[in-house]
């Protein structure tokens, strides 16, 4: 299968591209800069900005599958300009990808488009699956509009999979990569009350799930890409401390987080108890279903 990837040089994309190439797929990875990148084996790179239409669209049009991972990081203070960047990086990229796929003619094409569990808003202790309604905060608005752009590809006969990511854990990046230095020094602790739910996934299971959805012709619509056992922030903190054999009892007060991060602080202090109902029903099995097993693997 020829697979076109946006965001393929990032934390998630790098490992996914490697996995798909090892599985026999041919990858074309879109990058704004070819600096430091080398074609090799089943992977080649094409230069371009996904937020702008360009010659790269011909590669997307000719692909059997497109995996859309591009989007500005939400892990920043949400100023007016940051919000615009977060929204436009997702909307414009997805719109351009869909328009490029609309020029293709082969049957059986698929678009795997990233979204996030932020779609559901903050729901306290409510158990959430793919049937749950969207929230109304900024992040929920972003993901809702993001998904709306992706679904437009269905009119061109494309199978569309909406991948609602939880917090992705990996040893060399993402949220865990930012936490580990503090926790290794015994300076980690819960955020705010610690009672907020934390929906997470080991990067290995995330990559396996994306490959699974790519190759399952009946898979379409929204899928929560989270481990089957969400935890509270307090329980996660304790598990990480145990895995590192370090104390983890220095809490970050909620008011300080909100003072430092503004509106984005709510993402850390509130949460969602999300379950991968549709992925389980499709028959996918997790290698790292519990936080203890995941952290034990990631910090060794």
Describe the structure.
The chain is of the alpha/beta class and 300 residues long. Helix content is 39%, strand content 18%. It has eleven helices and 13 strands. The protein has helices spanning 11-22, 56-61, 80-101, 138-151, 174-184, 203-215, 233-244, 254-261, 265-269, 277-281, 291-298; strands spanning 2-6, 26-31, 43-47, 65-68, 110-116, 127-128, 159-165, 167-170, 197-198, 200-202, 221-225, 231-232, 273-274. The protein starts with a strand and ends with a helix.
Nutshell version of this structure?
The chain is an alpha/beta fold. Helix content is 39%, strand content 18%.
Query: Biggest sheet, strands in spatial order?
Result: 3-2-1-4-5-7-11
Low-confidence stretches: none
Shape: globular
Encode the helix/strand succession as letters: EHEEHEHEEHEEHEEHEEHHHEHH
Broad structural category: alpha/beta
The largest sheet, given as strand count, sense and whether it forms a barrel, is: 7 strands, parallel
> What's the number of extended β-strand segments?
13
Report the average pLDDT across residues: 93
Backbone CA Rg? 19 Å
Strand content: 15-25%
